[in-house]
């Protein structure tokens, strides 16, 4: 995470996400998948092919791509279908866009009720016998049972969670890095899924993004760094108020 | 000798001696700002490379001078509320923290009998100028104990003139031992974990001995805590010198 300043001198914290060897692996049509839209399987980050059996390599062989560490699905409209095997780059996103980021949260192991659910526990002194971090009562007398989903101690973390509506501040096309506002679930260097935001406020926010995606061998020549309008670029002189 | 004309030969001045100033060559490599050295961790070095590129860009626009904890600086920042839209603060640097673009330094001064500390970000675009009025080092890396010292040690004249310094001198170390206000202090500075050499402790002997109970003499031999930055520093110095010349 890194600080970023706007032209008015305000500071924002920004997470750097690297797009590492992303390829489209397969196209699944609406009828095949049984959902409402067609799906595209996308794989990221090349890994050694020797740790999995040959049967697991079929998808990658069809697309002509080395084995990927993670394969995710994206729901896609019919006009945005991409041929399997095309590489995906950071320039697919543009500064000023809003994005949802999904990742597996940091695993905390088996945790008690105070850390996992934020219970208040019991006082440290004043006669408490061996009861300082326990849940206390778990149900009522009338219920005569414990409800399903009762908050209790258990394994915490290591589940998929999404941060919604994160602004994209800057894109580096040379190293394929996306600078995304705020924090993102997951530990450093973990695999992350970045998707156009589904929030209703940002439905019409995308101002002419590359559609269906940014093709590297196309005619478009992008500069090395794409900045949002409000970012203070370090080539400018210091901010002055008038 | 006599030339063919009969006149004395034209005076040829001796060739100018070429002075190879070994000292300057050594001094050029001496100072690397501490925020360039990446901390120990499992982050991708590409992240530090991107940060360094931005830091170098900013250094090309503004001159961020070499300074240490204990030097007196004057910082001019842009401020929307001030009448001239800019603010100048003079103070002694008591702490330098943070790595990369978020590097900060804290300046302390006593203005009208009120101690004031301001934490500035080195790479913030609101900073318009940083001048070093007095470049010197102190015995410690962290001068937070000045909060509990007598106010005379933290007062610096706001209209102080910059102390002239020869171009290639050694940075002077001020071996000042500071006198403290009576206890209680904000932190127990006599304890060995702070390892402070710049205070003249006027505490009784038994209290100083009792403070040594919290010493951890095994820490200096702990090999897992060692972080050898010499190779990393050399690489970064090379990168910096190349980029700044462009």
Give the topology.
The complex is a heterodimer of chains A (242) and B (246).
Chain A: E1 2-5, E2 11-18, E3 22-28, H1 30-33, E4 38-46, H2 58-63, E5 68-76, E6 87-88, E7 98-104, E8 109-111, H3 113-117, E9 154-156, E10 160-172, E11 177-181, E12 192-196, E13 225-227
Antiparallel strand pairs in A: 1-2, 2-11, 3-4, 3-6, 4-5, 7-10, 7-12, 8-9, 10-11, 10-13
Chain B: H1 22-27, H2 45-61, E1 72-78, E2 86-97, E3 104-111, E4 114-121, E5 127-134, E6 137-138, E7 173-174, H3 205-211, H4 230-245
Parallel strand pairs in B: 6-7
Antiparallel strand pairs in B: 1-2, 1-5, 2-3, 3-4
Record keyword descriptors for this entry:
heterodimer; A: 242 residues; mainly beta; Elongation Factor Tu (Ef-tu), domain 3; Double Stranded RNA Binding Domain; 2 domains; 4-stranded antiparallel β-sheet; 3 helices; 13 strands; globular; B: 246 residues; alpha+beta; SH3 type barrels; two-stranded parallel ribbon; 19% strand; mitochondrion (chain A); Ribosomal_uL3_bac/org-type (chain A); transit peptide (chain A)
Describe this structure in words.
- The complex is a heterodimer of chains A (242) and B (246).
- Helix content of chain A is 6%, strand content 32%.
- Chain A is built from 3 helices and 13 strands, in the order E-E-E-H-E-H-E-E-E-E-H-E-E-E-E-E.
- In chain A, the strands form 3 sheets. In chain A, strands 1, 2, 7, 10, 11, 12 and 13 form a 7-stranded antiparallel beta sheet that branches.
- The longest helix of chain A has 6 residues, at 58-63.
- Chain A is globular.
- The model of chain A has no long low-confidence stretch (mean pLDDT 91).
- Chain B has 246 residues and is an alpha+beta fold.
- Chain B has a domain at 34-53 and 63-174: SH3 type barrels (Roll).
- Chain B has helices at residues 22-27, 45-61, 205-211, 230-245; strands at 72-78, 86-97, 104-111, 114-121, 127-134, 137-138, 173-174.
- In chain B, a hairpin with a 2-residue loop joins strand 3 and strand 4 (114-121).
- At the A-B interface, strand 1 and strand 2 of A face helix 2 of B.
- Chain A: Keywords: Mitochondrion, Ribonucleoprotein, Ribosomal protein, Transit peptide.
- Chain A: Its main location: mitochondrion.
């Amino acid at each position: 995470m890194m600080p970023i300043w706007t032209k008015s001198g305000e500071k924002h914290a920004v997470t750097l996400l690297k797009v590492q060897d992303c390829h489209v692996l397969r196209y699944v049509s609406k009828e095949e998948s049984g959902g409402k839209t067609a799906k595209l399987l996308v794989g990221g980050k090349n890994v050694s092919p020797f740790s999995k059996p040959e049967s697991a390599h079929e998808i990658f062989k069809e697309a002509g791509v080395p084995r990927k560490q993670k394969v995710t699905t994206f729901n896609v409209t019919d006009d945005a279908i991409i041929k399997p095997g095309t590489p995906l780059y950071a320039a697919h996103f543009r500064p000023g866009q809003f994005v949802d980021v999904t990742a597996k949260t940091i695993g905390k192991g088996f945790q008690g009720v105070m850390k996992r659910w934020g219970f208040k526990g019991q006082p440290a002194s004043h006669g408490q016998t061996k009861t300082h971090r326990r849940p206390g009562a778990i149900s009522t007398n009338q219920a005569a049972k414990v409800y399903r989903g009762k908050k209790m101690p258990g394994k915490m973390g290591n589940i998929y969670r999404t941060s919604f509506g994160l602004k994209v501040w800057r894109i580096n096309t040379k190293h394929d890095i996306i600078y995304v506002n705020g924090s993102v679930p997951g530990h450093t260097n973990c695999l992350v899924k970045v998707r156009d935001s589904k929030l209703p406020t940002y439905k019409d926010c995308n101002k002419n993004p590359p559609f269906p995606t940014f093709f590297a061998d196309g005619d478009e020549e992008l500069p090395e760094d794409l900045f949002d309008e409000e970012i203070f670029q370090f080539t400018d002189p210091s901010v002055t108020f008038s | 000798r006599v030339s063919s004309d009969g006149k004395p030969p034209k005076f040829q001045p001796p060739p100018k001696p070429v002075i190879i100033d070994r000292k300057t060559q050594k001094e050029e490599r001496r100072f690397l700002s501490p925020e360039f050295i990446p901390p120990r961790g499992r982050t991708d070095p590409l992240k530090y490379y991107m940060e360094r590129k931005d830091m170098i860009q900013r250094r090309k626009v503004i001159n961020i001078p070499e300074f240490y904890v204990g030097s007196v600086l004057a910082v001019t920042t842009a401020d929307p509320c001030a009448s001239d839209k800019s603010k100048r603060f003079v103070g002694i640097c008591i702490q330098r923290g943070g790595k990369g673009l978020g590097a900060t330094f804290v300046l302390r001064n006593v203005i009208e009998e009120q101690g004031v500390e301001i934490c500035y970000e080195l790479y913030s675009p609101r900073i318009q100028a940083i001048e070093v009025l007095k470049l010197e080092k102190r015995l410690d890396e962290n001068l937070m104990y000045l909060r509990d010292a007598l106010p005379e040690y933290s007062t610096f004249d706001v209209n102080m003139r910059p102390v002239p310094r020869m171009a290639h001198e050694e940075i002077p170390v001020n071996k000042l031992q500071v006198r403290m206000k009576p206890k209680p202090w904000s932190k127990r500075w006599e304890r060995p974990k702070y390892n402070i050499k710049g205070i003249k402790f006027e505490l009784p002997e038994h209290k100083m001995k009792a403070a040594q109970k919290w010493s951890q003499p095994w820490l200096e031999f702990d090999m897992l805590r060692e972080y050898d930055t010499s190779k990393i520093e050399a690489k970064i110095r090379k990168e910096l010198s190349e980029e700044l010349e462009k």
